[in-house]
Amino acid sequence: MTRHGARAGEDAEDLDVEEVLALVRNSNGSHLPDPSAHGGTDSARATHRPDASARPGTRHRATGWPEARAVAERAGRHVTRAARRAPVSVPLDTALGLTLAAPLDALTDLPSFDTSAMDGWAVCGPAPWHVRNDGVLAGHAAPASLTDGEAVRIATGARIPPDTTAVLRSEHGRTDDKGRLSPTRDVVPGQDIRPRGQECRTGDQLLAVGTLVTPAVLGLAAAAGYDTVTAVPRARVEVLVLGDELLTQGLPHDGLIRDALGPMLPPWLRALGAEVTAVRRIRDDADALHEAITTCDADVILTTGGTAAGPVDHVHPTLRKIGAELLVDGVAVRPGHPMLLARTTETQHLVGLPGNPLAAVSGLLTLAEPLLRILAARPAPEPYTLPVRDAVHGHPHDTRLVPVVLRGDEAVPLHYNGPAMLRGIAAADALAVVPPGGARSGQEAELLDLPWASGGIGVCFT
Known about the structure:
Layout: E1 3-4, H1 17-28, H2 41-45, E2 63-64, H3 65-83, E3 88-91, E4 104-105, E5 115-116, E6 120-123, E7 129-136, E8 150-154, E9 166-169, E10 173-175, E11 180-183, E12 193-194, E13 205-207, H4 215-223, E14 228-231, E15 235-242, E16 246-247, E17 257-258, H5 261-271, E18 274-282, H6 286-294, E19 300-304, H7 315-322, E20 325-329, E21 331-334, E22 340-345, E23 348-353, H8 357-375, E24 381-382, E25 385-387, E26 399-407, E27 410-413, H9 423-426, E28 430-434, E29 444-449
Parallel strand pairs: 2-21, 7-8, 15-18, 15-19, 16-17, 19-23, 21-26
Antiparallel strand pairs: 1-24, 3-14, 4-13, 5-12, 6-8, 6-9, 7-11, 10-11, 20-22, 22-23, 25-29, 26-27, 26-28, 28-29
Function: Catalyzes the insertion of molybdate into adenylated molybdopterin with the concomitant release of AMP.
Pathway: Cofactor biosynthesis; molybdopterin biosynthesis
Cofactor: Mg(2+)
């Protein structure tokens, strides 16, 4: 159901990440503005960044949902220019979900020799044919030449003997009582022979810079002779799960609850193209959080909870203490309103997710997904809409993200979509973007695919 943007089609070698990003942006026609077009990153943020000098608790207007996603993309582009992250050589078995940073050029002709497309007989000249006693199997040395009136048993993928006229399929031939082979239908010269170089010649570009490495890409790379591919490195993410009330096993008891985000976020982040370097549990202590953030060397820090203004919500005070720059401080979306995005260093960002599970999912898809997608140099999926089957209640002023299942050409809203609930999202295929005021039955709504339901790179969990 996902509509993916077109891939870059330009020849290039050993590009750095920003050049890959430029190719991807230019090829998919992204409508998002580049920071430089607005007088640089700082001026691009000026219209939505809250006043850093505001007192704690001072109210400010939350960033609109579309703009918050655009800000996260611009933050990713800022990092790619500042860090100049070099492409890496990655073994095929660990490259799934990465983005090619160099074109995939054929290292050999494919196929590299004339090969049989079917099981049957290699025949020479007109029928009938005398069948040799030996046979030709895949993976064996070059067979002996055929002469007119001669045939030899051959397997799919085996090398074609010199002077072969055609391959006669097993079901299209019969032998008489003298052992002579005859066809049951006309034989066309060259039939069922895959000639050398039919798919590509050595040096042909098979895939361009900016291509997402899918299972099929891995297969093509292996067939073309590659053991590794040159790709954009994964962004390193460290997850900080905040809270004294969280259990890691057993049933909830005595005011304690199970941590749902610790198990959920790492595979979701991997599906978004990131490398999760650690999941750390931090108690509700300002000093502990300060130490965890200031000693982290990951590209992105992801925190859960503590983004509001309660007595143990230490994320905002900690960010002020370290001089971080708040790029997004609250988003006009439900659930997940108190999410945030901050630049902690020139090349590191912190995404603060709310503590309620579905609100955290909202923050993940609103701020973390665009940021990580840019760092991974993945093209943005093309937006698409479907009509909602049932009316969806909306917030008076904010966007709502509602779990849905896709049934035919409709999106069916799911129940159990409160901020603290995961039952709806666990059964969902996507999230519907519901505008302020809600959506009536049959109204078109934009959909955000979930990685495991998108059919593209949904298997990328490792």
